[in-house]
Write a structure and sequence with these properties.
Elements lengths: L3 H22 L7 E3 L3 E4 L4 E9 L3 E4 L6 E3 L3 E2 L2 E9 L8 E9 L4 E8 L23 H7 L3 E3 L19 H10 L3 E4 L8 E3 L4 E2 L1 H16 L3 E5 L16 H18 L7 E4 L9 H20 L9 E4 L5 H7 L12 E7 L3 H4 L34 H14 L7 E6 L17 H21 L2 E5 L6 E2 L4 E2 L2 H12 L1
Parallel strand pairs: 2-9, 10-11, 10-19, 11-14, 14-15, 15-16, 16-17, 17-18, 18-19
Antiparallel strand pairs: 1-3, 3-7, 4-6, 4-8, 5-7, 8-9, 12-13, 20-21
């Protein structure tokens, strides 16, 4: 007969054996399954992406898209493993998506969303170059310090036919004339899509137009001017389509356009700056996220062409280029693999009833003729500005300084201007107190220029032939030019 001590020892051994058995099988542990990525995206040309997973059970991966997505390893045991996803070229032109599932024997499962965009248009990045930093040493802040008083060559390269809106093309003598007046940086609004595509189905820009824009940029750079070259209004193909419904198409167009522009202009040094668009209409956070996606498409397209474009300073636009919306909605900047090479652009026509509304009252506002301290009319008080005067300009620019300039992100005031009502242009809406009106226009121009500079913002006056005679290289409106010069040099 065995002793009680023997049976106690036997029971203890059974408990230990059971414990070891449970531990080795994973029983008693909390089930775990982690994956390093839950979303993976591929460019149209395809590529690979590694995902690590950790689990305390055996695992399998299901792949419902074997026709275009390959997975190197679809099963394994407990521990940590890596799976590699590989996609080929997407020739469909449309985005394709797959949901792959990682499942563990411990009851856990994880979904991974895989997306690959399509090429709606051919790639125009046909001759990428190795990065070239020659002449590109300035970061955005350093370059902004070299750019002073700016002017637009407006209503010229962005009109359906070059200069048909102003009846005078850009010449070397005009560039020299503008520089002599005191401007050292030019914004060149340019159209590409509206009337300058030689093959719209492929988003191919007319080579002759690319050559002409290159010629104008060269005139400016050869004269020591800095140039901001953009894709302007272009009948609203991008500006009016910052929305989810058109997002894929707009990104495809943007990529195709900028690959062509960037390749053509690639050899200019840092005197040339690219701006992705003009005034994209954005009113909420969802649209802002889509706009940042457009900006990133623009940035990637430029950088992909290489050469000096690898280090070029690029300009991205705030929502509707409105300073207040930009302050509120532009809380993150688009990603750029090259640090410190980005500027932000806003425009200012505050208040629009004074600067832009020149042909009669409308539902959203009443024309204002008189603006600023000491400039209100007692003859026509109903046309005085109310509440949108100096303090509002101050607030808008201080916000841009606080949010961007003070953080090392330069800001350009890409457009600003106020137009005179006169007998030639606005005979039906001629101010009764014309002297006060003209004084208001000049004061507004001087004040905005002065306050932009005071807040570290580079001002570009919107000139469309009212102030300067391009055909004859003479000043048509000396008081307006004086207002700009006095505002900038005070």
């Amino acid at each position: 007969m065995k002793s009680k001590h023997f049976y106690k020892m036997l029971l203890l051994l059974c408990v230990i054996a059971t414990s070891v058995s449970c531990s080795s099988s994973g029983e008693g542990e909390d089930p775990t399954l982690t994956v390093s990525e839950t979303e993976v995206s591929f460019e149209p040309d395809g590529g690979t992406s590694d995902i690590s997973l950790t689990t305390n059970g055996t695992w399998t991966v299901s792949n419902p898209a074997t026709s275009w997505l390959q997975i190197n390893n679809t099963s394994g045991g407990s521990g940590t493993a890596t799976i590699t996803l590989t996609s080929g070229i997407n020739g469909s032109g449309l985005t394709r998506t797959a949901m792959i599932t990682v499942t563990s024997s411990n009851g856990q499962a994880r979904l991974i969303k895989v997306t690959q965009t399509g090429n709606l248009y051919p790639s125009y990045n046909l001759t990428p170059k190795a990065p070239d930093a020659t002449g590109m040493s300035s970061n955005a802040v350093e370059l902004a310090a070299k750019m002073h008083m700016g002017i637009n060559f407006g209503n010229t390269m962005e009109s359906p036919v070059e200069a048909e809106w102003v009846n005078s093309k850009i010449t070397d003598s005009y560039v020299k004339f503008v520089k002599q007046l005191g401007f050292n940086t030019v914004r060149l609004p340019t159209g590409w899509v509206w009337t300058h595509l030689s093959d719209p189905d492929k988003m191919k820009i007319d080579p002759l137009w690319l050559d002409r824009v290159h010629e104008v940029v060269k005139l400016c750079v050869d004269n020591g001017m800095y140039v901001v070259l953009n894709t302007h209004g272009d009948n609203g193909w991008l500006e009016n389509n910052v929305n989810a419904a058109n997002q894929e198409t707009i990104n495809a167009k943007l990529k195709a356009i900028w690959e062509q522009i960037a390749t053509t202009m690639r050899d200019f040094d840092e005197h040339l700056i690219f701006a992705g668009t003009n005034e994209p209409v954005v009113n909420d956070a969802q649209q802002m996220a889509i706009l940042n996606g457009y900006h990133e498409t623009f940035i990637k397209a430029v950088r992909s062409t290489g050469g000096k474009n690898s280090y070029r300073v690029l300009v991205v636009q705030g929502p509707t280029t409105d300073p207040n919306k930009t302050y509120t909605l532009m809380n993150t900047l688009p990603k750029d693999e090259i640090p410190n090479k980005m500027m932000v652009e806003v425009h200012d026509y505050t208040p629009a009833t004074f600067t832009l509304l020149t042909n009669g009252d409308v539902s959203w506002g009443t024309m204002v003729y008189y603006w600023g301290a000491g400039n209100h009319s007692i003859i026509e008080p109903e046309r005085n500005a109310t509440g949108e005067e100096e303090s509002l300009i101050d607030t808008e620019f201080q916000r841009m300084k606080e949010k961007f300039v003070d953080k090392g992100i330069p800001v350009i005031l890409g457009e600003y201007a106020a137009w005179r009502r006169n007998a030639i242009n606005n005979a039906n809406y001629l101010p009764m107190d014309l002297d006060k009106h003209n004084q208001s226009v000049e004061y507004w121009t001087k004040y905005v220029t002065k306050q932009a500079k005071a807040n570290g913002i580079i001002p570009y006056y919107w000139e469309i032939g009212f102030m300067l005679d391009r055909a004859n290289n003479v000043v048509k409106d000396q008081p307006m030019l004086d207002a700009i010069l006095e505002g900038y040099n005070q």
